[in-house]
Amino acid sequence: MARDGHVVPVDPQTTLTVKKKKQSSRNWILLDCTGQGTVLDADKYQIMHRVQIHARDLRILDPLLSYPSTILGRERAIVLNLEHIKAIITAEEVFLRDPTDEHVIPVVEELQRRLPPSNAVQLHVQGDGKAYQGRQHDGEAEEDDSPFEFRALEVALEAICSYLAARTTELETAAYPALDELTAKISSRNLDRVRKLKSAMTRLTARVQKVRDELEQLLNDDDDMADLYLSRKMNSSSPVSGSGPAIWFPASPTIGSKISRASRASMATVRGDEDDIEELEMLLEAYFMQIDGTLNKLTTHLPGLIVH
Predict the structure, then answer these.
(1) Three-state SS sequence of the chain
(2) What's the CATH fold of domain 7-303?
(3) Model pTM score
(4) Where are the domains of the chain?
(5) Coiled coil where (predicted)?
(6) Mean pLDDT of 167-185
């Protein structure tokens, strides 16, 4: 039975197969810089102490509360609330809420695949079932050389933009036949069907708009973008604060775990020039364009459903 601080190791090489149960606001998964995952049953005070954020920031991630899409840069963390993706990203770890949610599981899997740096030692399984250690191919290095927090942020942005684009396509697929039927025959059934689709489009448009607005706000403020560069801030600050490391979730060895003990790659030297902001700006711009395209599709490609 789970108690405060109890941990359950998760194999980063496999899909989460835990049955979805009643969601708890204490349910998190912690992913480190090697992609190793640990499911946590932690209260808000433990989380706040670990990542050093305020209670008001943590409330943004409460699944029982409704907050607009938000990406906040704090001294040692990025607080990210994008639809079902509610995460806290640090320079070395990602805390993701509700890891057994059907929409969150693919995000966990993608983080496990892309968080390890290009020079991290990976565990591979041969055809005979025996494991051996190897490194990622050189061709992947360029993609993985970004700071840890950027890799984690990109996974979240990619997932949410793809998710909203898919919902838009589903709506479009349902809308045109409904409009055709209404044009062919005006009936209470057909009118009701179109009204429901119109309401769904209005709600979806508002959700897409919120994500787009948040990215646009970030892109318009260099200081806000600089706040997201956690590796740079960590590199420029003193090595250890007087408070010392937080002592909380037991650093238990892998009890019954099949997690490979891949060696941690040393952090790459953090550059301190303006190119770092430009790198983040390019990342945000790419997903801004994607979400803007989705919004444009909702507001122009479905003219029969737009509420004027």
Answers:
(1) CCCCCCEEEECCCCCCCCCCCCCCCCEEEEEECCCCEEEEECCHHHHHHHHCCCHHHHHCCCCCCCCCCEEEECCCCEEEEECCEEEEECCCEEEEECCCCCCCHHHHHHHHHHCCCCCCEEEEECCCCCEEEEECCHHHHHHHCCCHHHHHHHHHHHHHHHHHHHHHHHHHHHHHHHHHHHHHCCCHHHHHHHHHHHHHHHHHHHHHHHHHHHHHHHHCCHHHHHHCCHHHHHHHCCCCCCCCCCCCCCCCCCCCCCCCCCCCCCCCCCCCCCHHHHHHHHHHHHHHHHHHHHHHHHHHCCHHHCCC
(2) Methane Monooxygenase Hydroxylase; Chain G, domain 1 (1.20.58)
(3) 0.73
(4) 7-303
(5) 194-221
(6) 88
